[in-house]
Amino acid sequence: MSDVQIGKSQVYASTLGLGTNKIGGHNLFKNLDDEVGKEVLRTALRNGVTLLDTAYAYGFGQSEKLIGEVLQEAEFDRARVIIATKAAQVPGNEEQLDNSPEFLQNAVEDALKRLQTEYIDIFYIHFPDEVTKKNEAVKALHELKEAGKIRAIGVSNFSLTQIKEANLDGYVDVVEDNYNLLHRKAETELFPYLAKHNISFIPYFPLASGLLSGKYTADQKFAENDSRSKKADFTGERYQKIIATMTEMKIIAHRNDATVPQLVLAWYLKNPHIAAVIPGARNVEQMVSNAKATDIRISNDDYELIDDLFRF
Ligand SMILES: NC(=O)c1ccc[n+]([C@@H]2O[C@H](COP(=O)([O-])OP(=O)(O)OC[C@H]3O[C@@H](n4cnc5c(N)ncnc54)[C@H](OP(=O)(O)O)[C@@H]3O)[C@@H](O)[C@H]2O)c1
C-alpha cells in the first residue's frame, strides 16, 4: 500500500485508511461490540493500513481508548501507525463546541492519555465554534506541533471561508469534509483552493454510509428509527436513481475484478485531489475487502465513466 504526505507535514499515511466511528462509537451506532472493533483495528494494521481516523466524539473517548489498547499489543509498532483524531465537543456537554486555544491544549492532552501515546500524528478541529478566530485556534495547534505533541494540523467541517481564515499563517496541513460520488460540492471551490495551498483533502462518508457499497435494493425499507429513512439519498426518486446507478457500477466492478465498494474506493484513490480515503468498517470482512481497493487500477475510461454516471 502506498503512502501519501499529509500537507506540508512530515506525516506519511497509507492512502487507504480506516474510519473508526463504528469502533467504540456507541453514542452514534447501536449494537457495537468493542471486541469486534478491536479485531477490525488489528485487521487493518495487518493489512497494511496505517491511517486510523478517530475522534473524541466517537464514544466520547472510547474509540481512541480502543485504539490505544490495540497499539499496546506487542504485534504492533506505534511508530508505524498514523493516528488522526479530532476534538471540539466539550466533554460532558457535547452539544457545545469549543475551539479556544485552552480547550485545544487540554483536548490534545486528554486524547494522548486515552491513546496511550506521546504524540498524535494528525489533530483536527472537529467542528468550528462560533466565537474563536480560526487562525488563533490553528496557532494554538501550531504551538502543540512545535512542542512535539501533534505532527500535522487539520480542520474538519469548516466552510471555505473558515478554512481560509484558519490557514492565514499557512499552518493547515489537511481538511476532512463530507465528499463522495453523491456529494461533490467540494470539487468547485474547495479542491482548487486546497491544491493551491498544498493542503491535503480526506473525504468522510466515502461509501455514503453504505449506500455506495451496492448492497441495497430498490425495494429496501429502512425502519422509522433508522436515521437513513429520513435522509434524501435514502428516500424517493433520488434513492431509486442511485440504486439504478449502482446497477451500472456492478457491471464496471465486474470487469475490473472488483467489488463495488472496492471500485468506489479505487475511484477516489485515482482522484488527484484526494490524499487518502477512510471508509468505516463494521466487521473484519469489510475491512479485509476494503484494504484490497488499493490493488484495483481503474482505466482512464472507467474513471471518466464513473465520474459521468454520478453527475445527476
Ligand atoms: N470529520 C467528520 O465530521 C466525520 C463525519 C463522519 C465520518 N467521519 C469519518 O469518516 C469515516 C467514514 O465514514 P462512515 O464510516 O460513517 O461512512 P462510510 O465510510 O461512507 O460507510 C461505512 C459503511 O459502509 C458499509 N461498508 C463498508 N465497507 C463495506 C464493504 N466492504 N461491503 C459492504 N458494505 C461496506 C458499512 O455499512 P453497514 O454498517 O451498514 O454494514 C459501513 O458501516 C468514519 O468512520 C469517521 O472516521 C468523519
TrEMBL record:
One of its GO terms (molecular function) is oxidoreductase activity. Keywords: Oxidoreductase. One of its GO terms (cellular component) is cytosol. Residues 16-309 form the NADP-dependent oxidoreductase domain. It comes from the Bacteria. InterPro entries: AKR, AKR_Detox_Biosynth, Aldo/ket_reductase_CS, NAD(P)_OxRdtase_dom_sf, NADP_OxRdtase_dom. This is Oxidoreductase, aldo/keto reductase. The lineage of its organism: Bacteria, Bacillati, Bacillota, Bacilli, Lactobacillales.
